[in-house]
Amino acid sequence: MISQLTSLNVGDAVLVGQWTNLPSMVHVEEVKEKKMGADQSATKAWIKADKMKNVGGESTQGLVTKRFVVRLMLFSHISDTHLGLIQYGSNEREQDVYDVFNQAIDISIKDHVDFVIFAGDIFHMPNPNGTAIIQMANALKRLKENNIDSFFILGEHDISRIRTTPIPYIYHNLGFSKYIGNGKPIEYKGIMLAGLDKIRKTEMTQYEEIFSNLDKSIEKFSGHKILVLHQGITEFNKFAGELQSTDLPKNFTYYAMGHLHDKDMKQFNHLKGPIVYPGSIELTTSEGIKDVKKDFLK
User: Fold this and answer.
1) Which of 44, 57, 253, 293 has its CA 20 to 30 A from that of 131?
2) Per the confidence metrics, is the pTM higher than 0.70?
3) What percentage of residues in the chain have a pLDDT greater than 70?
4) Cα(123)–Cα(260) distance, rounded to whole angstroms?
5) What pLDDT is recorded for position 69?
6) Is the domain of 31 the same as that of 164?
7) Of 157, 230, 259, 261, which one is the catalytic site residue?
8) Is 157 an active-site residue?
9) What range defines the domain where residue 143 resides?
């Protein structure tokens, strides 16, 4: 994160310390009000802005000056949930996947995230069983009930090779979640979001122009810009790589990736933000049995 300091815009900052679980990029907005002779209380300012919750006042005093209020946008980045996976033909392993998925949703709700990104391979198969479909629907419903929006793209496991409507579209049509895999940027709470569904190797050449046009369309946007993709990047895994980091649009400040099942993050000088893989939430058939911690990013 510190390597991004040279690319920060006016008002941007990187926050670290005991009150934030992960180093976080924030934007500091100027408050148009009468100057005061003393610093504001950080705790009162955050409550007034209604943007921060459960922040320890003692550890944050002095963070907000008399002319600025920090507004921290917190989101969950979840990928490769593979709902409906029945590993080794075991119903118990299927339930394991549902359990860790719901834990990720529970934590997102508990921590009052502003939104959730699902970076592809929501289901393990394009035609998931009814239990998997209901598990996802219930999760999105719980997020909505807690005023948390969500956005998703499709991975190769979500897309049938037979021309048919992907199951996750149901959630978009019902208003449970927002599909952003069509490459059209949308602005949400001062952040620009864009995504593309899984690009197969045979389709790569046509996406060079799409990447270029996408980059130009968001270049002048002053806020943070998140690109959601479900692709393997060669610098992370040369065997599963489909793109190189130099192929990506250059002007995004966070690259929310899916597809690779190990958690990893890298920063490149030619990109304005980190490439981040949260990894799969549970071991899948492609990984076998191994001692590894699975998680998601927030």
Assistant:
1) 293
2) yes
3) 72
4) 15
5) 42
6) no
7) 157
8) yes
9) 75-277
